[in-house]
Each structure stands twice: as C-alpha cells, then as structure tokens.
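Help wanted!
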Amino acid sequence: MAAADSASAALRRRDLCSRGIRLAGKMRSDVVDLLDTYVERQGLDASASVAVVEGVPAAAAERWDEQTGTQRLLENLAAYRAFRALLAQMLEEQREQLGEADAALGRALAAVLLQVSAFAYHLEELLRLESRGPPSEEGAGPPPAPHLGLFERKLRGLGVLAQPGQ
Amino acid sequence: GGLVQSCGHIIPESPVLALGSNFTALCILNESCLDFGNIYANQIIWKIKNRVVPKEQYREINRTVSSVTFNDTSSLATPLTCNILADGQIEQNIYGITVTIGLPPEKPRNLSCIVHQVSKLTYPMTCTWNPGRHTFLDTHFRLKYRWPQESFPDCIPKDVNNSCTITDVQFFVNLEVWVEAANALGKAESDPLVLDPIEIVKPLSPHNLSVNSGILPTVLKLSWENRISAAVMKLKFNIRYRIVGDTNWMQVPPEDTASPRTSFSVQGLRPYTEYVFSIRCMKEDGVGYWSDWSEEKTGVTTEDKPSKGPPIWRIIDASRSPASWTVHLMWKALEPFEANGVILQYEVTVRAKSSLFSPLEKYNVNTTNLTLKLPNGTYEVTVIARNRVGASPPSVLLIPASNSKAPVKNVRTLPKDGKLWVGWTAPNSYVLKYVVEWCLVSNSSDCIIEWQNEPGNVQGTYLKGDIKPFKCYLITVYPLYADGQGSGQSVKAYLQPARSPSKGPTVQTKKVGKAEAVLTWNRLTVDEQNGFIRSYTIFYKTIDGNETAVTVDPSKTEYTLSSLTSDTLYTVRMMAYTDEGGRSGPDFTFTTQKFGKGEIEAIVVPVCLAFLLIVLLGVLFCFNKRDLIKKHIWPIVPDPSKSNIAQWSPQVPAKHNFSSKDQMYPEGSFTDVSVVEIEADDKKSFSEQDLKPFDLLKKEKSTSEGHSSGIGGSSCMSSPRQSVSDSDEGETTQNTSSTVQYSTVVLNGYRDQTPVQVFSRSESTQPLLDSEERSEDHAGGCDSTTQRQQYFKQNGGQDETNADRPCFERAKQITSANEGDLVGFAQLQISGQSSQLLGLGLEKNTQEAALPDVLQTSTEGQTVRPEAVEGNPPSVDEMPKSYLPQTVRQGGYVPQ
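Answered by r_m:
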C-alpha cells in the first residue's frame, strides 16, 4: 500500500514537474509576446533598463546549485506569489490606464496572471508531495504597492513582466 | 386592499408541480363572507378550467376550508378554481390559481470539451453535454469550471442548453468542469470532468504550405508554418497527396512525420507528375484532436527517362503479294507513369533474322505505328521511346515467318462487372507473353483491331477498352514465345447479349409442291442479331387453321415444310431467338399446288396416246375402206372429152398431141378466130377500146389452130401452186377462182365480125383468162413493166399492124439488150419449153439446166451466168405472169 502510494506520488510528482516546466515555457513564451505589445502600447523603449524593480523577486537560478530541491521550490513559490500579486496590481493599473479600449492587452495580462497563479499552484503541490506543505501566503505577501508615478508604474510593470520571461 | 375583497383564496398560490406527483390545494373562505352570505366550506366546488372536479376529491377540513386532492398532476390544468353555490343555486367564483406542471432537470450527461485554437494565443474551450429530457419548465444550465485553488465565473450558454464556450483557458493545470441544470422543481449537476485543456486541443492546421521539386524526379519537398507555439505543444503531422485528377489520397507514413517540423520531402513519387499535397497536425503524443487539413498545394516532379518500352504488336497483310508482307507495326503510347515525361520520338529497329548479315533498319517516328513492306521471313522488331531525359528500355517483337508454335486452347469469354473477361488454357511450353486481339464485328464497319499484351503467366484477362453491350466481338489470343509465335485462336462474344434480335428473318419459298414447301431465309446480320442466334422457329398456318411451330437449327437457311394440304393458302413467318428472346420476321404467304409433280404428266400422256391410237385406227380404217369412201366423197364425174360435143366439132382434134412446136405453131399461121373465155357472170362491159389489144391474142389463139384444149396441158397450168407462186396479185387469184370449169361454146362475134363457132374448154386455173386480163391491163393503163412491154414488142415485131399502138411504141424505145429482159425472156422460154417437155409440172432443176442453152440463143449474144439467176430469184418472181400470151417464136403460143 505504501509502495503504491509512493509510486502514485512519484507519478504525480513527475506529472507536476513535467507540466510545470511546460507551463513555465508557455508562460515565458506568452510574456515575451506580451512584452512587445506592452512596450508598444505603453510607449516605452524596449531597451529600458528594468533590471531592478523594487519588490520584484529575481527568478534567476544562479544559486540553485547550492540549494536542495525543496528550497528551490520554496524560493520559486515565494517569487511567483510575489509575481502574482504584482501582476494583479499591474492589471488593475492597466485597466485604469488603458480602460476597456485595449481589452486584448488586458486579456493577455490576465492570462499571464493565471499562468503565474497556476505555476504557483504547481509549486505548492510539489511541496505537498515533499511532505512539507506550502507555506502560508500571508508571510510572503507582496509589498504594499509604492506610490509611483505613471511612468514608474509602467516601467515597473515592464520589469514585472520581464521576470517570468527570463 | 383591493377595491373588491375576495371571499377567499387558494393555497398554494400558483404552484409549480412535478408531473405525476400528487397535489392538494386548499380553499380558505374569509370569515367576513361567512357572516355576510352564509357561505361555508361544504358549498365549495372545485373546477379545472370549466370542468367540475369530482366531489370524491374534496374534503371539508372545517367550515371555512375545503381541500381538493389530485393523485396525479397530469390530470390538472390551468386554472384551478374554487367556486361556491350561493343560495344553493348560483355558482360564484371565489378564487383561482395557475398550476404549472413540469419536470425537474435531469443530470446532464456526456459532458465533453474541446479547445479550438483560433489564433496563435487564443484557445477557447467549448464544452457540450446532453441536457436530458424536456422539463416543460424554464431550466437554466451553467458550465462550471475551476482550478483546485481557484474558481472561475460560470459559463452560461446563450440560446442553447447543451453547450458553452469558455473564451480562454490556461494549459498545464487540471481544470474541473461540470454542468449544473436548474429549474423550479430542482437542480442537477453532471459528473465533473477533470482535464488539462492542453489535452483536448484541436490546433490550427499548418499554413503557408509550399511544394518544391527536388533534385530527384521522384521527390517533392514540402514546407509550411505551424501556428501553435512549440511552447504550448509539440506537434506531429500527417501529409497526404494525390495525383492531380485522381481522387484517392495517399499518405506519407505517419511515423515519418511524428516529430515537430516545418518541412518534409515526399519520396517515391512518379516522375513528371503533378501532385496535390495537404497537411495537418496534432499534439505530438496523440492526445487531443487532429487539426483540419491545410489548404491544398500542387507540385510537379521533374522528368525521368521512360521506365519501359511501349507494348508492340503487328498486323501482317500477306494478301497483296505472296512473296512479301505488308507489316503494320503498332505500339501503344506509354502511360504517363511509364513515359515519365514528354515522349519526343520512337526509334524502331527492324532486323531480319534469316540472314546474319542483313542490315539493321532504323526508323524514327513520331506516331505509334509504322507500315513496312518486307519480304517473307522472320524479323525482330524493337521499339524505344525517348523523352528529354533519355530512352526507354527496348520493346522486342519477334515476327516469325509462320505461326508454327503451339496455340492456346479453349478460348472462352465471360462478361463480368460490365467488362468482358477472356480466358484461355496455356500451351505446355513456356509462353513469354500473350497478345489478345479483338474487334467489333459489324456489317457497317470494318473490323478495327484493338489489342493488349498480357504476361505469360496469366490465363485470362479483362479486355481493356470500350466494350459495348449488344455488340459482337471477335477475340483472338496469340501466345508469343521466345523463339516464335503460336497461331491465334478466336472466339466470338458479347459483353451483354441481353436483347432479342432487332429483326426477324425474312422467309420465302424456294419451291412449293402439293404437300410440301421448301422455305429459305437469309441469316440475320451480325448487327441485327444482338446475340448468338440459338434457334429459329417457323410458324405456319392456313387462313383458318391453327398455327404450327417448327424449331430449326440456327445453322440452317432452308427448311422443308411437309404434310401440307394441296391448293391451300399458307401464311408462314419465322422467329429468331437469342438467349434473351425472339423476334419475328414478316409474314409470307404461299399457296400449295393443286397437282403434285408428275400428276399432270400421268394424265396427259395416256390421253395423248389414246388419241394417237384412235387416229391411227381411223387411218387404217379409211385405208381399208378407201374405195367406199371415195365413192361417197368423190362421185364419178363424166369426162367432158368423151362427151358428145367433143366429138361433135370436126375441126378440133380430139386429142392434143404436140410433138413439136413447129408442128403446133406453124409460123405465121394466125387465124381470125379468137378464143375468149368470158365469165358467165361477168358484169364488166368491155368497151371497144378495151378490147382492142385482144386482137393480137385472137390471132395468137388462132395459131394453135384455135383449139387449145386438152386435159393434160390445162392441168399443167391449172396447178394451184403455180398459180399462186406466179402471181402476187390477189385480184388475179380471185378472178381465177370464179371461172367456169367446163367447156363453153362461144358463138358471138367480136363487134361487127362474124362470129366463128368455136368451142373452148375452160380450166379452173384459167390461164387464158388471166392472160386476157393482163392484156387488158397493159392496154388500158400502159404502165406495165418493161419486161412485159418487151414481150409485146417481140410479139409486135411479128405483127406490123400493131406497131402503132401507144404501148408498143414505147416498148420499142427500150433496148432489147437489157440483161433483165433477157433473163425474163429466158425464163419465159424455159417455162414454155418445160411445159412442152414435161407436160405436167415445172421442175426448177430442169429449168436451171435449160437456162444456159436458152441464154446462148439470145440475139445479143450476151451470156448470163446461171448463178446470177439463181442468186436473184425474186427477179424471176417479179416477172410478168407467164400466163400472158407469149410469142416466143413466131406465132408461138405456149399453153400453160
């Protein structure tokens, strides 16, 4: 029974990993497409430096060699939870800025938001399979949105989008 | 608070009821009405529409409440009213409710979803389900879906109740989908469907398909673009293709295109062929749906050299010259898949196999036939087809001097599936291939030969051509060996002999007898037969008799009907039968003969024989009894010569015995006595002038001592034959016939002359009379021929007294040397001489023999050959009648 559970868990894990990777790939692909649209619609320069955006966790994997799998999952989960919060904020701001006139961009942003959310769910599920359970979201909540000017907000949005695209 | 206060109400108000359930309604009366109108619950009447509900269903709960119960709501209808009988008579409505009857929703079943890709980033998901039975109520369906950690707004169908489309779904996360149906009677949910939308995607088909010919003539390269991101799904493909004009698609093996790609080289194609391509895709792992097929694109492979030589055959015409053939070589154009390009030329090589050093004859032709005149012998013919790329392998045909090899056996045909199958039994030897020849047999057109090759290992094939039904085909099979050829074996066949002949045979009689008739008919032509004639049937009948049928073998064209009734009209017709039916020809009638062959002869011959016998007997009888008959038929006539009057005239010798002419007619012994025979009934009155010419005759008569009597001499001249032959004038004959037979004593003188008593014997032939008449003609008309005049001239020469007569004067002008005259003269002499010599009759031979002598005696000395006379007998006939009194010699008179 335990063996069966273990096999089932392994299968489940493999499935989650597989789909998580593909989801990440699609997310990246969509975001790359979206970035162009976003830059165009917001009147930004594609070469604008968005290297550091406050409150946006880096999705880089430089330190993965030093971490266990669970740690990686935890970091990723925290990061995508942050992305999700940021994207939600951004989507709200986009709606205010662009209104209903650019519904396609809004839908694309919503789709990315959903994917980020889905990816976070994958990570949570993987952590559950690791018998850890996901950490509560309260602790990893997004920072309160800073009060920024319009341009900063646009630029920040670009930075937010750029992260999952890396 | 309305203007009119109701006296009661019904509970429940406007209920929605499940069909088939039970239902109870209450009618509650107001207390105020009780006091006002003495209305109580026991007076309540329930009605459905206008129909009173049976009171068994009522129940009075108290004095203000009445209930009605329905065990099955299907008997309910709207409205359900509560009524009361006021004062026991007047029915008043208290209240009414609307009853709605329906069904609770069923659980939606068969929920299924599909994600249609509509653009590169848009993936709407459409779910469909079976909504279940009709509820008769307003039922709402909702498509619900959620992630484990997140719910989404419901998808509400528009205008339909069995499908809904979620505008955008995210992949790689399991989505739980279910349908909720709800109405006034309840709510139902389908089983949930948990799926990752990526597993139910129907992607857009690849687009921008292009086809390019490759280096090889059998390869075409396809390129396309995929419209779904590789990040979303990896794709596999199906590629299908077909030859333009063909309807059947071929497919590239799926395993060759089971990985993501944007191009593929299709191999194994035919050179120089236009292909149509189409492509589709689906998720690489096969989970999901295939896209639609892409738009079709065409491409043409490049040319290649012909893959095989053209099939070749020949027709040999040896009829024109025994020593040489006219060989019609013919080959079939290669099929496109064999030609592999445009055939530019055929190269034909003919080599005589009989002599080793015979030259190779080459011909380059653009057509598919070649006619050659070749001496009889064995030849090897090769044909090569050439296109832009190269030449085909050669096709070889051996034409042997004679088809001496074993032929096929048992050639047979079988119509099958609208085609004509030909089968044969192979010879024992190894056959390289077979040639099947066929042509349509028709009277109206020549047998145009078609043919096809078949490999040596088959023993049957379908004819590849436009084989028409109801037509006769002559099919011939030739086996071809490596070193020769077998003679052709033929069979006639129909693809579909499903018709009776188009006309029947025309029958007629060849010979009709008394009890039999020989009928003949012509065979139906091939075009009329429509099938093989299996039999003929002859129907014959009399006018009022039953029809008799006789079946005749189809190979015959003649049949003898026997046991017929004689002298009877028969009607006969003939039917020709194929397997599918018969057709009658026109009716023919004939009448049998009354008598059979030989019957008439059997009657006539005995009758004739009997007649002949009777005649013979009669003749014999007459011969035996001739004396008796003669006595009765020819009575004894008294001989006038022995009469008393003959003895009575003393000047006339009783017997004429002229020994010589001189003695008979002494020169110049003319007398004055004329012997003129006058018919007893002569009605002519001779004028004096008319009778003048007779003066001479009178004198002539007198020279014969006036007594030209004697039976013998007269008999000679009285010959009827001579009389006819000597006279062409009927009048003369008539006159002759009316003469008096017997002697007459003439005692009248001529005019004033004293008559001399003479007697003369008148004969039937009356030469004298004739002479007299002719003399009369000469004298009166003066138009007698020269010959006649000549006679008179001669005659006149003897008598100067007659020289002044006009006719004689004219006669003098005519030369006496005239040859014709001489002949005529000679003839007259002969006549006279022969008469004298023979007494009876005048033999022509004698006449001819005597002629030269007479001619020699002519005064002019001219000689006329006897042949000339013989050669011109009419001149003799045309001579004046010898009955005329003639004076050949002086004073001569020839009794005729």
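OP: Thanks! One thing I noticed: Chain B has a mean pLDDT of 75.
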